[in-house]
Amino acid sequence: MTPKRFKRSTLKLGFLTWLHPARSRSSRVRKKKNTAELLEEENTIVSCPGLVIWRGTRSTQDYTESWTCDSCEVLNNPTKHLVFDLPAFHCSICKQRRYTDFDVCYNDVRLHDDAQIIRRILQQTKDECMAYAWISAIEIVDAIWGFLMGKTEPSILEEPDLIEKVAREREKIKKSNKKLPRASRVDIGSSKTSSKMLSIYGEVAQKYGIKEKAKEDNEVRKPYKIGETITIPAGNFSAICEAIANGFPVVAFINGGKKLEHLKFGQVYKAPSDEKFKRKGFRHVETHAIVLVGAGRSKGVDYFHFLSSWSPMYCLRMSKDRKISRGGIGKVRASDVLPDPIMVKPDYNVN
């Protein structure tokens, strides 16, 4: 069945306005072509083992310009990805870096019926921003990849279920004499500890799954499980961008502060460093878990769009007629993302 084509007006909102469901690589039409041949075709991309995705009509957020390297004079074309095409960050031959301005964000992505892929979640429990960040990231993965696999409605997950399961997992860790600090409070400079804390939520979502909210009282659904989680070095801006562009959101930590709480739309948050907290006599720093849902570069400054669980009214943007066009999403300098963020991938076989 041919997917319904979107209205032309949705093109500037972002997504592939004609997004095809995934087909098996062993399908009758494509079985004689190998992976290399498929990638040469303009509108296809191999996104996971055994699946070929037809990319469809492209978004206006795609980066379309090529650039010529000053050193070796090689032409570098934009790199193809599922959701957004990106500029080439390095020369393909001599690896010289290129600082090209661009901007992409999941907030401008639309699926069927003009639906957004981001559901804003208001954090109800103090110090549980990690649970809410993971829930948001997993729901984004499901919205994109579930649609590709023919799913008509995205999953809505129960935050308390993940919080409860992680609490049980933390108790097991404590009983094994491994000490963990409080959820959103870490010793200054203790990035390895915060990264381990973040990964526990992903391990629980993989192993036990998360309850889906049922539509009917007597409906029973099996827990929603995710697939692979991959740690990306915090300083690898291009790798994080590619993960986001391929439809895999990234969960991360940043240092908190008053400026974060009062961040306005369009501003780029500059997180206070550990050294600044140290100079003021703090032994601990309050961190905040976020989901990286977009990326960009402006005038040589790399940044990420991040989804916060504080409020749908956070970083509010309103149109001239006072209609809300974006909320809950801010910007943070790429250099302020703490080690090490985690990319979330779907379970292609289960979900």
Question: Strands, helices and their partners?
Answer:
Layout: E1 23-24, H1 35-40, E2 44-48, E3 51-54, E4 67-68, E5 75-76, E6 102-105, H2 129-148, H3 159-175, E7 185-187, H4 191-207, E8 226-231, H5 237-245, E9 250-255, H6 258-261, E10 268-269, H7 274-279, E11 284-298, E12 301-307, E13 317-318, E14 324-326, E15 329-333, E16 342-346
| Count of DSSP strands | 16
Largest sheet: 9 strands, mixed
Task: Tell me the CATH superfamily.
Answer: Cysteine proteinases
Uncertain segments are 1-33
Q: Classify the helix fraction into a percent range.
A: 10-25%
Span of the ends, CA to CA: 21 Å
Class, according to the CATH hierarchy? Alpha Beta
Average predicted local confidence, pLDDT: 77
- Total number of helices: 7
- State Rg: 21 Å
The global form is globular
Q: Determine the CATH topology.
A: Cathepsin B, Chain A
Series of H and E elements: EHEEEEEHHEHEHEHEHEEEEEE
What share of residues are in beta strands? 15-25%
Tally of separate domains: 1
Tell me the structural class: alpha+beta
